[in-house]
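Narrative summary of target 7.
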Amino acid sequence: MQHLDMSKIIGSRDRPWFTVAEVWIDREEARAFYHAEPMIEEEPGLGLADYWGVQYACGLKLVFEYFHHPGNCGVVSADVFCPQHVERHLRHWKKSLRIFPDEMFQIDRESMFIRFQETMPELLTHRDYQVMRQGDDGNPLSMGNPTTYRDAQCWVTELEKSIHKQIYWVTRCDTLTADRP
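Modeled conformation, tokenized:
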């Protein structure tokens, strides 16, 4: 996990950030987990907030926002809309993580898809890939839900490291007959 320079992210309109979850842990636990001091920024009308940003080896970027209000809740935003990928990386906070329903930010999300479709076409493929595995009988089986290519690749990498060895691959949902490795 690598830290992101929050001064280049906060207030920038160069790329979208998708609000995907809230995490019910306090700021001190977050600070200990990130091993870094937050960037503190004044949000007009809302007060001070702590921000951390991280990037995982697979490329997933997450930003965490904690307002200086009573309570132990932060908001998690991702560089691509893919809640299951966020859940996979924040497994250690499973009991504290609440994924927002898809429809909660649907209008905002669709507006960002349209605005950034030319420069970030991968935003339009957020449910186009499927993780597959070879069953014991040799037939392909789909795993989980359709997702982004990055999430599917990340999950395959994780599965290949597991004790239960299988053959895993990623395919486009519209071509579930893609070549296996």
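The chain has two domains: 2-123, 127-175.
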